[in-house]
Amino acid sequence: MGSFVTNGPALGSAVHCASCGQAIGDPGGAPERFGERFCCDAHAEEFVADVRSARIREATRAVEPSHCALPPSGRRTWGDVLKRGACWGAPLLLLLALPLLWSGSAVAAAGGSLLSVLAVLACPLGMYFMMRAMAGSGHASDHRAEPAKAEAAKKDGPTSIGVALLAVALAAAAAVTPAEAREPAQGAPAFEHVHALALDARGRVLWLGAHTGLYRSEDGGRSWTKVALPVAHHEPDVMAIAIHPTEPDLVYVGTHEAGVLRSTDGGRTWRAANTGLGGLDVHGLAIDPNTPIKLHALVRDRGAGVYRTLDGGAKWVRVDDGPAGETKVLASVNIATGMGGIFLYAGTAEGLQRNPDCF
């Protein structure tokens, strides 16, 4: 006899339809879904569709976005943007900072240092959100999460770990940046063709003559200050320096195009001391350590020769043709000649030459 449905109230142990609640006359032949029985196939399929929709909705609610990912544009807040910036800001800032730190430019290195500081400030916050994302992905995998949530965890977990490792690696690279790149030397000019070095009598000021001018240092050469000279050329070629042996503020310099310049106040002011010189291309200066008002100057090209002054540069007199070859340095050396004077040494392209300064 076929199955039939009764419209009366349920009695005793009668089986009822899980969809409409009506009693099922023949439970053995009734359709069954998910452990439930139904009065007809239509109700069974309707129930299956409802269960499927409910599970999809539940899975959608269960999948939380990564802490480093932005929600859909309709649900995005300033907090979400801050999380995203904190996650990715530190490594990006370090990527920008490293080329600046290694560039060698003082300005670029300063900018790189500033970016490094910002990266250090952003790194802890970014690491916090990354670790939360990693913990959330592990929780989803370990507790039999729904398929959609488990899939999201697989995608977000490695990304968060990769970003964290990148930030750590870049921070380590910034930490080993050379000190000279992070702290560029202050006041150190680019010298070209250094011609002369001299230390004052107190041992405090180091003077340097170069193709680009005259410089002084009061910290043993760690930093230099360019000294202004009263010449038409903005970068006079300083070829020689002579300092009074007992008066450190009395300085003479020989230049390529301005002759001899003299300062009595440690280089703050200068005046020309060229009276009697046959030319202004002075390549050597030597001061007598026993009689400091006596100096010798070697002039090249026009008026070439060795000139002597006995009054501290007020007047020069030509006394000799000078050594053969191009002179690189001239010095009065306190070695007695036996003739009432000392020796004048000249370092030339052909070697070292000397002559008594009493010629």
Mean pLDDT: 74
Q: The biggest beta sheet, please?
A: 4 strands, antiparallel
C-alpha Rg (nearest Å): 46 Å
Shape: rod-shaped
Please identify, by name, the CATH architecture of the largest domain: 7 Propeller
CATH superfamily of the largest domain: YVTN repeat-like/Quinoprotein amine dehydrogenase
- Total strand count, please? 19
What would CATH call the class of the largest domain? Mainly Beta
What is the count of helical runs? 5
What does this structure look like?
With 359 residues, this protein is α+β, with helices and mostly antiparallel strands. It folds into three domains: 15-62, no CATH class; 73-182; 194-356, Methylamine Dehydrogenase, Chain H (7 Propeller), CATH 2.130.10.10. It is built from five helices and 19 strands. The protein has helices at residues 41-62, 78-101, 106-142, 147-175, 179-182, and strands at residues 15-16, 23-24, 32-33, 36-37, 194-199, 206-210, 213-217, 225-227, 238-243, 251-255, 260-263, 271-272, 282-287, 295-299, 305-309, 317-320, 327-336, 342-348, 351-356. A four-stranded antiparallel β-sheet has the order 5-6-7-8, with no helix packed on it. Strands 9-10-11-12 form a four-stranded antiparallel β-sheet, with no helix packed on it. Helix 2 runs parallel beside helix 4 and helix 3 (106-142) packs antiparallel against helix 4. It is rod-shaped and about 145 Å long. The relative contact order is 0.06.
What secondary-structure arrangement, pairings included, does this model have?
Elements: E1 15-16, E2 23-24, E3 32-33, E4 36-37, H1 41-62, H2 78-101, H3 106-142, H4 147-175, H5 179-182, E5 194-199, E6 206-210, E7 213-217, E8 225-227, E9 238-243, E10 251-255, E11 260-263, E12 271-272, E13 282-287, E14 295-299, E15 305-309, E16 317-320, E17 327-336, E18 342-348, E19 351-356
Antiparallel strand pairs: 1-2, 3-4, 5-6, 6-7, 7-8, 9-10, 10-11, 11-12, 13-14, 14-15, 15-16, 17-18, 18-19
Helix pairs in contact: 2-3, 2-4, 3-4
